[in-house]
Amino acid sequence: MIRRARGREFLCTGVQLGYRYSGSPVCVPDGTPEPPDDPDDYVPSTWPGCRAPHAWLPDGSSVLDHFGRGFVLVVSGASDPSSLVEAAQQRGLPLTVLRLTDPAAARLYERPLVLVRPDGHVGWRGEQTPADPAAVLDRLRGTEAGNPDAGSVMVTPAVAAEVGIRQL
Length: 168
Hints:
alpha+beta, four-stranded mixed beta sheet, 6 helices
């Protein structure tokens, strides 16, 4: 009886997988409209703030297996990620480059460059590297602009609230 009466509550992949940080201070909006938000239907997207979508890689791992230990720059096509990689190195920011070679996975990721935060949510995406990659990285890590010292990271109140940090 419980399954019949309450089963629909638990069949809501849009709620479970479609969570996004709309208007987050640690995401860089790209000016595109927010994807549909339907509690019953999950539509994978790399819109900044969305959970990065799953795709199988040729080695049998999932793209998702590569998230969680730092930032990941998902690259497809002939895009050159070097300016983002250099800016991350200057800041001591852990960044891994993950190349998508499967055309279906590249289409799923919507842009040739998708920067995924350690929590698995997209922070930035683009057709080419940003004009100021350091500013993008500073925003994604929630620091004051121009503070490259990873040992003195300042978490803004908005970022602290989003990630559940209690500031003293």
